[in-house]
Amino acid sequence: MLKRELVDSVSQQLGDYYKQDIALAVDLILEEMASALIAGRRVEIRNFGSFSVRTRRPRTTKNPKTGNMMHIPARKTLHFTMGKSLKEVLIQQDKD
Question: What is the sign of the dihedral through the CA atoms of 47, 48, 54 and 60?
Answer without folding.
Answer: positive
